[in-house]
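Quick one:
INPUT:
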């Protein structure tokens, strides 16, 4: 039995926990405001608000329902565009979208409204930039997107400064007509549902040993299985409640494997590790995908071009692996054994990640067919400091140039302890070329990928040390 709150109605369903939420909403639940587009999380047409109970209040974030299984919403509040509609007329978000011409055929409109509304929930500022970012994962074939910008500008002017307290902010949104009054009673309804579920997190009684596979965010697994409408029996790795997902511990930065990329972007703790986290996370994926994609999933999928892995490799990350017989520590650099092959043993999962104290990400670069919202052709990250005039603590990582994400150990060793000069960096760039084995594929030729790697590694040093003359090495 799957129990959740759908708009203002409690729902109990005897359906497979591995069924796509999108299919359940459009099928038996008849919430056809949720549109089926790509089924890969790329277009935003199927976006819904997901409310999660934390203590006495709910926090809401927009997520693609094609990247969620029915079991993901056990004990949660699912809001479709029908759940935002007032008894008569339009909400302020819907009105602005219509008046600014940000809707024509209407197919993308529900997702756009959901995404913009989520920003009014989650942000105390709701700036034009934040509103545009939230709508960034929504594809529109009609408008040319300038109407989206106008709509965001108007909403920012109307709702720019709002209460810090989430409860006060929710009540203000109800009063303004952005959301209907039933949101205020949602926490009590969810607590009642959770009582009926007897606190169980695993729908249909699945366990890690009885399930066909484990799933957290699902942004990789559900794309690989997107043709299925019913996906075997999953074990859900839910986010732990009542703990800090990103924290400092004995000088190290420790992250739960369920931490999402959007969690990283919003975390002040993470910005002490990556001062450009906002820019870097925007390069990774749309906000809709960042809300689902977890670090544990990004690592265990073992893609040669995983953006999160490239950054974590450069940071010298160590994994805590949990298995049937206990836990063990393993450097991330030793986790990848070959293309899509990992060191995970039977029944093991990634539990936590630990970044050694003092490590800071000095650069992350990627090239893809689109500047943003796309997977990389080649990506790279770097950590280093200067001790006087010399490099210290150099680590360079690269993706898309071999069967696994990799460390450029030779290039890093060439720089370690050496003077930070253009000649020394030139030598490191040449060594990096000898360490990689790119192949030609649909994303580019091997020669092209070698050139990209050289330029991306060079970009780390040009950006971080603009007064060292490294620009002369640019082609």
């Amino acid at each position: 039995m799957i129990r959740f709150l759908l708009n203002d109605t409690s729902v109990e369903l005897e359906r497979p926990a591995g069924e796509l939420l999108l299919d359940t909403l459009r099928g038996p639940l008849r919430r056809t405001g949720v549109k089926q587009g790509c089924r890969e999380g790329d277009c935003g047409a199927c976006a819904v608000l997901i409310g999660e109970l934390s203590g006495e209040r709910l926090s809401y974030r927009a997520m693609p329902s094609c990247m969620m299984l029915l079991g993901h919403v056990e004990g949660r509040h699912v809001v479709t565009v029908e759940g935002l509609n007032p008894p008569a007329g339009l909400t302020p978000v819907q009105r602005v979208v219509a008046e600014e011409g940000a809707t024509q055929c209407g197919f993308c409109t529900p997702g756009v409204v959901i995404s913009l509304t989520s920003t009014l929930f989650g942000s105390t500022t709701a700036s034009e930039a934040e509103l545009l970012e939230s709508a960034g994962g929504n594809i529109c074939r009609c408008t040319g997107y300038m109407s989206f910008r106008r709509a965001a500008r108007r909403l920012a002017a109307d709702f720019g400064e709002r209460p810090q307290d989430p409860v006060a902010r929710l009540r203000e949104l109800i009063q303004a007509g952005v959301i209907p009054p039933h949101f205020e009673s949602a926490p009590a309804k969810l607590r009642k549902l959770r009582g009926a579920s007897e606190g169980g997190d695993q729908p249909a009684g699945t366990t890690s040993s009885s399930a066909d596979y484990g799933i957290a965010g699902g942004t990789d697994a559900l794309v690989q299985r997107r043709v299925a409408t019913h996906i075997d029996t999953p074990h859900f790795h839910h986010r732990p409640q009542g703990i800090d997902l990103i924290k400092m511990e004995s000088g190290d930065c420790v992250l739960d494997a369920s931490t999402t990329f959007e969690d990283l972007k919003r975390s002040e703790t993470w910005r002490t590790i990556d001062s450009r986290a906002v820019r870097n996370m925007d390069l990774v994926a749309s906000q809709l995908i960042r809300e689902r994609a977890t670090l544990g999933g990004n690592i265990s999928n073992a893609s040669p071009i995983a953006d999160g892995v490239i950054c974590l490799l450069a940071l010298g990350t160590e994994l805590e692996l949990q298995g049937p017989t206990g836990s063990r520590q393993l450097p991330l650099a030793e986790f990848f054994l070959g293309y899509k092959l990992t060191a995970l043993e039977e029944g093991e999962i990634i539990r936590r990640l630990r970044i050694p104290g003092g490590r800071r990400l000095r650069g992350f670069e990627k090239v893809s067919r689109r500047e943003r919202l796309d997977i990389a052709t080649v990506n790279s990250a770097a950590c280093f400091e200067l001790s006087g005039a010399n490099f210290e603590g150099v680590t360079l990582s690269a993706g898309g140039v071999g069967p696994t994400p990799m460390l450029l150990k030779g290039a890093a060793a060439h720089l370690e302890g050496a003077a930070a000069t253009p000649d020394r960096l030139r030598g490191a760039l040449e060594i990096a070329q000898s360490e990689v084995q790119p192949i030609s594929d649909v994303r580019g030729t091997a020669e092209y990928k070698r050139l990209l790697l050289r330029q991306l590694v060079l970009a780390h040093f040009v950006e971080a040390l603009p007064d060292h003359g490294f620009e002369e090495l640019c082609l």
